[in-house]
Fold this sequence. Notes:
By secondary structure, the protein is of the alpha+beta class. It contains three helices and five strands. Helix content is 28%, strand content 17%.
Amino acid sequence: MTSSPGHAPARCPFCAIVAGQAAAHIVLDEPDAVAFLDARPVFPGHVLVVPRAHVETLVDLPAADVGPFFRAVQRVAGAVERGLAADGTFVAMNNKISQSVPHLHVHVVPRRKKDGLRGFFWPRVTYSTEDDAAKVAAAIRAAVVPAG
């Protein structure tokens, strides 16, 4: 993984945690990822999983690192469920908008039935027509970068 241009990892609070220069409650420390408790959790046990190298968004994460990173996220999600006897987890990430720290991070939040968390944190809408949905899908499909 490489550092992304435009942001100094020296000033990144998550890079400081990864480097052991800032305090955090670490739950996983491996070559591809570090996971630690969120300082402002949605629920106790809310974990942030970050790639060890500084990248700002999912798009910046090198393709070869996606699999190993998300295997770590998968293992943390299982550990949160088992370790806290949670009914499940909410796993999410923001890219740029609402990303409080510009270092890629995945939220793993323990969930329990009737915990009060309601789906997504933003309003949901519908497409006006099937044609509108088809146009949006076509625009995204045309912008997909081929694999490999």
